[in-house]
Task: structure prediction
Amino acid sequence: MKKEDLGKLEEVKIRSIWEHEQYDFSSWLAEENNINELGNVLNLSLIEVQTEQPVVNYRCDIICKDEFTGKNVLIENQLEPSNHDHLGKIITYASGLDATVIVWIVETARVEHSAAIKWLNDNTNMDISFFLIEIHAYKIGNSKPAPYFKIIEQPNGYTKQGKSISQNGGELKERHSKRLEFWTQFNDMIDACGAPFNKRKATTDHWYNVAIGSSDCYVSIELVNKLHKIRLSIYIPDNKELFDKFEAQKDVINAKVPFPLCWDRLDNRKASLIYTYIDGLDFNNQDNYKDLMTTIIDYTICLKKVFAPYL
Result:
């Protein structure tokens, strides 16, 4: 291709695409494909999307939930430069709707508001997360404009978690850093495999969850380094009826899955598990990480494909 055949990326004015915040932008953002795209940027799986929820004498733009944690996620849109009024609104709305993830989307983030969001993230506990995001749009020649979410400020979960551990009288242990390293490489491998499912933020936790299409269950990937294994499961937090529904199709499901599944209703607990193990995890010997992570991704894709039709 000749260099003169290359197009030039041009930014499009936001108001030329979405004239009105509520009726145009919020409605567009609440659509499944668009809210999923925002969820990818936030490393969240956003479900139960509602617009114009009342908060005393006001209405917030969007309230939804993170599928895995059940946390309320507040989204406030502002198709203009950030201002003090909306900064106050996000805090008011968050308190009124018990939201612990607060997302403020603006045309342009002013320096003082970026500093304010950073201060909130640095001085609140790890259960509270603030995001400041600019919405942009670009086109090449006569192409349709493509939206782009640009993160200006976000919570530093790793720092908060480290701070929390320190405040409780301990330091970040080696296994925590090994987990963070594993999940970071795992996210890179997901990208290398063509992003067959949405990534989650790399953390120091021993688990990593993947959405399956329902808030009632998900694929859980757990690091069990003591046993040198990965446990991969359909995790059902609190729905015995769903487990029974799956188990009624146990023979069909087992026949479709090319690896053994253990079915555990766990009658004395809220959660139920349908799981398998993958051998070979060793934090101190990472030579097999590429193959191990490829296997995890293949198994995850399989579980999603097999179980999703029964939801």
